[in-house]
Design a protein that fits this description.
The chain has 170 residues and is mainly α. It is 71% helix and 0% strand. The protein is built from 5 helices and no strands.
């Protein structure tokens, strides 16, 4: 694995801040939105991490991490704009939760890949991108994302029902 550049360090630190803010937001508020400061931090840092990922070419060209960066940017844009288009108002909260939570999945794939291929520094856990352990982590992260989104969907449904009954959100 090539040494980490200054851009790589910046990207890594921003991505770690994003992950901390994202998981904090999910635990405290159940969904990631721009309504909360931690959600704003998560989304801003995620955008910066995705953009900087597009500038890192340690593996010789456009690769899977770049594809995830593009998907992240598209998910951020879609999640933001779906709430601004009135014809999507019935699904906007659900779609936004899907998009913004999906960006956490997109963070985790390169995080685990890079982490296991770089750490510990003298003798990394993995030697190749094709190690079956990586695929197991990817599957685990997808299952966690899927179960987490279902939980968010149910929570959003209940919140919508409460809003309909009382006219206010708790």
């Amino acid at each position: 694995m090539p040494e980490i550049t200054i851009l790589g360090w910046f990207h890594t630190i921003i991505a770690i801040v994003a992950l901390i803010a994202g998981f904090y937001t999910l635990v405290i508020y159940k969904i990631i939105t721009l309504e909360h400061k931690s959600g704003q931090i998560y989304l801003a840092c995620t955008l910066i991490a995705a953009v900087t990922a597009l500038m890192i070419y340690n593996q010789g060209g456009f690769g899977p991490a770049h594809v995830l960066a593009v998907l992240t940017i598209l998910a951020l844009i879609a999640g933001f704009f779906v709430t601004k288009i009135s014809m999507f108002s019935k699904i906007a909260d659900y779609f936004q939760a899907f998009c913004f939570s999906g960006t956490l999945l997109f963070h985790m794939v390169p995080a685990i890949t890079d982490g296991l291929l770089r750490l510990p520094v003298d003798d990394p856990y993995l030697k190749t991108f094709h190690d079956p352990l990586l695929k197991q982590f990817y599957l685990l992260f997808f299952v966690i994302f899927f179960v987490g989104y279902i939980a968010q969907f149910i929570w959003l449904k209940k919140r919508a029902a409460r809003l309909q009954q009382t006219g206010t959100l708790p």
